[in-house]
Amino acid sequence: MQTNLFLPVLNAPEIARPLALPEAAAPRTHGAKLWLPQRVLFTPDALQEAYGQQILARAQALNLPIERLKSNRLTGLRGADERATYRTAKTTLAVVNAPAGALRLQPTPPSADYQLNLAEGCPAHCQYCYLAGSLSGPPVVRAFANLPKLLANTQAYERAGRPVSFEASCYTDVLGIEHLTGALAEAVRYFASREGGRLRFVSKYDHVESLLGLPHHGHTRARASLNAEPLVRQLEGGTASIEARIQALRRLALPVAQGGGGYPIGVVLAPIMPLPDWQQHYGALLDRLQAALDFDCDLTVEFITHRFTPGSKEVLLGWYPNTSLDLDESTRAVKRNKFGGLKYVYDLPTMKELKAWFYSEWQRRFPHAPVQYWT
Predict the structure, then answer these.
(1) How far apart are CA 106 and CA 115, in angstroms?
(2) What's the order of all strands across the beta sheet hosting 141-144?
(3) At residue 20, does pLDDT exceed 90?
(4) CA dist 108 to 114, 165, 170, Å?
(5) pLDDT exceeds 60 at position 7
(6) pLDDT at 25
(7) What does the DSSP 8-state code read for residue 153?
(8) What does 212-255 look like in DSSP terms, one character per residue?
(9) What is the mean pLDDT of the chain?
């Protein structure tokens, strides 16, 4: 996911306390609750789209409160303060048309060749949220009703020589809202027929039933976002447990003849943090993954360490003023991009130690599953 827009810090408060880890306990196994927004807004343009009407039917079937807006502008989403705005936005689904600029796809290395945004905004409550500072305005979930046009537009980016990859999870968790939109299933079906394109998505949710019977022809890679158990418990509100995500990944990867989806799969291990006893916690995670994927499957991994920008820190502390997330710049190294923006990353010795350990432990357990990148 792309996260690093440069914004100035406006007297952001200091972190309230260091990360306090929960006591050792048996891994949790709960699945994620379906996100049911308190309001579903439809713009006039969205309701003119056949796909917008399909989303309307889904919302009506779930008996959700529906508002048909008189204009294509979203208003009334701000509260008395940033926390109130956050609460209002996080309980709202807005069904809109993606703007014309969405048809100019942006490169998104190293995750994929291009972004393909089926929606923007996420129903989860991750205290390190990658979207903080990246999307303008309140963090409302926006689903795009002109989905067929967005999918067809990807053909202009295909080229001879090798398939072009499209990342659907830059600005949303597509699986977390799939019961409301059906957009991920539509994209899987679309790319199944495209020899020149490949779809990629990643999720912290486990509701994969609607994907298992789809014809995908191996053209969609389904990935699970995983992390150490203590970090998930403390920082990833509203998501499925690690065990539920692993089991969902197993179901996606199992052969169709065994009741699975037969998908190529992947693990996005993120955001990696050197918490106390991190080797023990991450080692336990990799052991659990190895036990679940006890069959031949097409598996990859992506390693992403925690980083933040001045702008994302400011937004996150507005959303989660009592967070235990480590956002102390004094313990980080500064990394600048070609546009002059900066982000705070772990220092070089820490990064070297983390990278060496994760590469070694991954390859020991999954010798045939390539590491796609480390960042």
Answers:
(1) 6
(2) 66-68, 39-42, 92-96, 141-144, 119-120
(3) no
(4) 5, 10, 8
(5) no
(6) 53
(7) H
(8) HT---TT-EEEEEEE--HHHHHHHEETS--HHHHHHHHHHHHS-
(9) 92
Cβ 254 vs Cβ 260: under 8 Å: yes
Cα–Cα distances in angstroms (integers) from residue 285 to residues 43, 225, 228, 361, in the given order: 43, 12, 6, 11
Eight-class DSSP state of 332:
S
Q: What angle do CA 88, 310, 205 make, to 5 degrees?
A: 50
Q: Can you tell me the distance from the alpha carbon of 236 to that of 22, in angstroms, rounded to the nearest whole number?
A: 14
Task: Compute the average pLDDT of residues 123-130.
Answer: 94
The candidate with the shortest Cα–Cα distance to 1, out of 100, 144, 112, is 112
Q: Is the pLDDT of residue 128 over 50?
A: yes
Query: pLDDT: is 299 or 79 the higher one?
Result: 299
Please check whether residue 171 is in contact with residue 120, taking contact to mean a CB–CB distance below 8 angstroms.
yes
8 A C-beta contact, residue 120 and residue 102: no
CB 306 within 8 A of CB 346: yes
Residue 132 pLDDT grade (very low, low, confident, very high; cuts 50, 70, 90): confident
Residues in the chain: 375
Kindly state the tokens that stand for 191: 């790319």
* Per-residue model confidence as pLDDT tens digits over 268-300: 999 999 999 999 999 999 999 999 999 999 999
Task: Indicate whether 10 pLDDT > 80.
Answer: no
Cβ count near 160 (within 10 Å): 5
CA 321 from chain center: how many Å?
A: 22
| CA 13 – CA 60 distance, rounded (Å) | 43
The H-or-E segment that residue 47 falls in is helix 44-47
- In three state form, how does the secondary structure of 34-82 look? CCCCCEEEECHHHHCCHHHHHHHHHHHHCCCCEEECCCCCCCCCCCCCH
